Every structure is written in structure tokens, then in C-alpha cells.
């Protein structure tokens, strides 16, 4: 196991990097404009608004969860690749409590999103009645709270230990803290994987309660890693000339990040194809509609574009 590299040279505040401050200011303006348009959408079509809100919320939750997972991976195995982006990952993971609050409006309008949250549909569908012990609003809410408690606790504890390690320069003085950080990360990865799997079932797969896939949670988890690492690489490339990030953004580290991203892309492709292959081979009427709906009515071009850009093109870059 490689010795974790220190991240003490990476700035932890945006104020030390003027370019990052400008990017944040621009993002704030875009966010305010988006909020105004969102209010307009909610007033005109609440159902479509909350569907779009759920999609956007899941994207940003996934990005923060990817930050948490990658930071735990770095603390567990070490490596210069993680030292370069760990401050970005910690900042992204610490947004999870904010995102939990942003998800509260969804809890108030579950009946607009989920068939199992509408009593009249449950009463008329035997399958939905069978799933009531799990798919009901109180238990759904309790599970969501539990997920965010686990994630937020990890997102808070990991940086606390990591900064204590950074403040102690001598390796002998940090050996115990590094070990504690590795143990926390190892256990945290297991808890994180379980929580993400159940969250994927609750928040996404239950949108179509008649359909199921045992690999769906892992597919969502790997997707987090892909989008998070890609975003981190873009951020590093944008800020590579700024100091002190420029001191550690060496070509070899960028190469490591690119290789890791390619590995995650290949893993995502493998998991996606495994799910498709199993469902295609079984050809069961309760499973194939999920893919049929996503390969018709113009969506087939989205699927083809995803296959080309998300798998074949990365091998040419």
C-alpha cells in the first residue's frame, strides 16, 4: 500500500485563487437565474417541474457522493493523484447536508413523482400493494434521512482527520492518525456502497416500481465516480496555472488521473452492458419495457451517442 501523499500544499480557500473566485461568482449568477426560471416552471407545470427538479437534484447529489467516495479511496490507498484533488473532493462532499435540505421539497410532492405514493394507484395494483411495507412515505423518508446522516458524518469526519495529519510533519507522529483514517475510509466505503445502492432503488428505480435490476445501485455508484473525477480533472486543468496548485499539478499526476478516469469509464460500461445483457437474454415482460422506452421515440439516438462518446471516444483521446 502506498503512503498517502500530503495535501497540505493545496489551497483550502477560494480566496487564495482569484480565478476560482471568479468562477464561483459566475456560478452564483447562473444559479440565481436558474432559480427564477424554476419558480416560473413550478407555477406553470408542477408535475414536470418536480420531475426536472428530481433529475437535477440527483445529479448534484451524485456529484457530492462521488467526491466522498473518491476521497475515501484516496485516504485508503494513497497516491499523488488524490493529493492533487482531495481538497476539491472534501469541499464537494461537505455539500451533502445542503443537498439534503434541497431535497425536502421533493418529500412534499412524492405523489407527483412516484406511483406508490398515490393511494388510488396502490389500491388498484396488486404489485404496488405487495411493496407497501417498503415503499411507503414514512419509511421512505426515514431511509432518506439515514442515508444523509451516514454520508454527512463521513464527509465531516474525514477532513478533520486529514487536516490533523497535514499539520503533523513527521511521519512517525502521523502513523496512528493515518491508520485511523484508513480504517474509517475502509468502513466508510462499505457503508457508502450500501447506502447508495438502497438510495438508487428508493429514488430512481421506484419511479417504475414494476421494474427491477439488482445491479442498478452499482451502476449509479460507478456513474458518480465517472462524473466526479471528470469534473475534478476539468477543475484542475482550469486552475493548473494558479499557485500553489501549479506546484503539484505535474503531467505525471494528470496522466494518473486520466488513466483512473478511463478505468472508471470501462467499469461503467461493463456494468451497464452486464445489466443490458441479462435483461436482453431473459426477455421477461416485466423487465424489457425499461429498455424499450429508452430506445424508441428519439431516445435511441441518445443511447447511441452515449455508447459512442462514453466508451469508444475515450480510447481515442
Would you kindly provide a written description of the structure presented here, covering whatever features stand out?
- This protein has 317 residues and is mostly helical.
- The chain has a domain at 47-261.
- It is 75% helix and 0% strand.
- It is built from 14 helices and no strands.
- It has helices at residues 18-44, 46-77, 80-93, 96-102, 104-108, 119-124, 126-130, 137-167, 171-203, 216-239, 245-248, 251-282, 288-292, 299-312.
- Helix 10 runs antiparallel to helix 12.
- The longest helix has 33 residues, at 171-203.
- The radius of gyration is 21 Å and the shape is globular.
User: Quick one: how many beta strands?
Assistant: 0
What is the end-to-end distance? 30 Å
Element string (H = helix, E = strand): HHHHHHHHHHHHHH
What's the overall geometry?
globular
Task: Assess the beta-strand content as a share of residues.
Answer: under 5%
| Radius of gyration, in angstroms, nearest whole number | 21 Å
Class by SSE composition: mainly alpha
| Uncertain stretches | none
Task: Give the helix tally.
Answer: 14
For the largest beta-sheet, the strand count, sense and barrel status come to: none
The averaged pLDDT comes out at 87
Helix content range: over 70%
Protein name: Quinol:cytochrome C oxidoreductase
Keywords: Membrane, Transmembrane, Transmembrane helix
Organism: Tectimicrobiota bacterium
Transmembrane segments: 23-42, 54-73, 144-162, 183-205, 217-240, 260-282, 298-316
Amino acid at each position: 500500500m502506498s503512503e498517502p501523499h500530503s495535501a497540505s500544499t493545496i489551497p483550502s480557500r477560494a480566496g487564495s485563487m482569484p480565478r476560482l473566485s471568479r468562477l464561483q461568482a459566475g456560478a452564483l449568477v447562473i444559479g440565481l437565474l436558474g432559480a427564477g426560471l424554476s419558480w416560473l416552471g413550478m407555477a406553470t407545470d408542477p408535475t414536470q417541474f418536480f420531475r426536472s427538479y428530481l433529475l437535477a437534484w440527483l445529479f448534484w447529489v451524485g456529484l457530492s457522493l462521488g467526491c466522498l467516495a473518491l476521497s475515501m479511496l484516496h485516504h485508503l490507498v494513497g497516491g499523488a493523484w488524490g493529493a492533487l484533488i482531495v481538497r476539491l473532493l472534501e469541499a464537494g462532499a461537505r455539500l451533502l447536508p445542503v443537498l439534503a435540505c434541497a431535497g425536502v421539497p421533493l418529500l412534499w410532492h412524492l405523489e407527483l413523482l412516484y406511483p406508490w405514493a398515490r393511494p388510488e394507484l396502490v389500491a388498484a395494483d396488486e404489485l404496488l400493494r405487495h411493496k407497501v411495507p417498503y415503499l411507503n412515505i414514512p419509511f421512505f423518508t426515514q431511509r432518506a434521512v439515514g442515508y444523509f446522516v451516514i454520508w454527512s458524518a463521513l464527509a465531516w469526519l474525514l477532513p478533520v482527520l486529514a487536516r490533523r495529519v497535514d499539520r503533523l510533519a513527521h511521519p512517525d507522529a502521523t502513523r496512528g492518525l493515518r491508520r485511523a483514517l484508513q480504517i474509517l475510509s475502509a468502513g466508510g466505503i462499505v457503508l457508502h456502497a450500501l447506502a447508495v445502492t438502497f438510495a438508487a432503488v428508493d429514488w430512481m428505480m421506484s419511479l417504475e416500481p414494476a421494474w427491477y435490476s439488482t445491479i442498478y445501485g452499482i451502476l449509479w455508484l460507478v456513474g458518480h465516480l465517472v462524473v466526479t473525477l471528470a469534473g475534478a480533472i476539468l477543475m484542475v486543468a482550469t486552475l493548473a496555472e494558479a499557485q500553489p496548485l501549479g506546484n503539484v499539478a505535474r503531467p505525471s499526476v494528470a496522466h494518473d488521473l486520466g488513466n483512473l478516469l478511463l478505468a472508471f469509464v470501462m467499469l461503467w460500461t461493463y456494468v451497464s452492458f452486464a445489466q443490458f445483457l441479462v435483461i436482453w437474454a431473459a426477455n421477461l415482460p416485466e423487465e424489457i419495457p425499461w429498455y424499450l422506452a429508452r430506445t424508441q421515440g428519439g431516445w435511441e439516438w441518445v443511447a447511441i451517442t452515449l455508447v459512442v462518446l462514453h466508451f469508444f471516444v475515450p480510447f481515442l483521446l
